[in-house]
Amino acid sequence: MTNNFNKLNDFLGTHLIYTYDNGWEYEMYVKNENTIDYRIHGGMVAGRWVRDQEVNIVRLTDGVFKITWTEPTGTDVALDFLPNEGIMHGTIFFPKWVEEHPEITVTYQNDHIELMKESREKYDTYPKLVVPEFAKISYVANAGQNNEDVVSEKPYDGILEEIRNGSYFNENYKRNNK
Ligand SMILES: C=Cc1ccc(O)cc1
Questions:
Q1: Does any ligand 1 atom lie closer than 6 A to the CB of residue 77?
Q2: I need a surface site. Which of 25, 46, 50, 65 has the fewest CB within 10 A?
Q3: To test ligand 1's pocket by mutation, which of 22, 37, 38 has the most ligand atoms within 8 angstroms of CB?
Q4: Is residue 168 in some structural domain?
């Protein structure tokens, strides 16, 4: 695992894959200082993917970075990344409706923002499902900021293996098979 994250600028443009201790596998691209893209590969809402989510990103201390946001679904998320240590900790605060109807959120959310907003009004918010978990980071790379190729297609079986074995991106971190 790389051991060279220090300032916020080192973290911006980073592409990570990590598996929570409960088995849920997520992929995060820190697109720029206030934007992420992500894909969910395992867990309650596996198959969901999102681009251009507005977030707050800060450096807590050298090599420790926090990302927080609230989603159109009403889900709140707080993530702490320690990439030099190969770990992160995430807490997800799911509204009740996402726990009861996860399938509504399992999509390319950008094409269904109005459905997320309608659903958060239509269904129950409380009690929320709080999921606090540590995760092990299995992949870290510098994709550069505002790289639209990093999270640019639906998650499929085998995509993480292609990313990890280096066949998914070329030397400029552009997608090989477009
Ligand atoms: C709900 C989104 C979400 C994205 C990344 C992550 O690690 C946890 C939650």
A1: yes
A2: 46
A3: 38
A4: no
- Rounded distance, CA 55 to CA 79, Å? 11
Burial 93-122 (b: 16+ CB within 10 A, else e): bbbebbbeebebbebebeeeeebbeebbee
Q: Complex ipTM above 0.95? A: yes
Domain count, the chain: 1
Confirm whether 100 is domain-assigned: yes
Q: Which atom of ligand 1 is nearest to the CA of 18?
A: 7
69 token code pair:
């946001």
What does the pLDDT look like over 85-112, one tens digit per residue? 999 999 999 999 999 999 999 999 999 9
| 124-167: pLDDT as tens digits | 999 999 999 999 999 999 999 999 999 999 999 999 999 999 99
Q: Give the up-direction half-sphere exposure of residue 109: CA atoms within 13 A in the CB hemisphere.
A: 27
> Domain with 59 in it: what CATH number?
2.40.128.20
User: Ligand 1 centre and the CA of 173: distance in Å?
Assistant: 23
Counting from 1 in the atom list of ligand 1, the atom nearest the Cα of 45 is: 1
Inside any domain, residue 53: yes
| Ligand 1 lined by 49 (C-beta under 6 Å) | no
